Amino acid sequence: MKNIVAIANDHAGVALKNVLMEEILACGFTPMDLGTNQTDSVDYPDYGFLVADSVTHGHAQFGIAICGSGIGISIAVNRKPGARGALCHSGLAAELSRQHNDANILCLGARLIGEAEARECVRRFLTTAFAGDRHTKRVEKLG
Question: Catalytic residue at 67?
Answer without folding.
Answer: yes
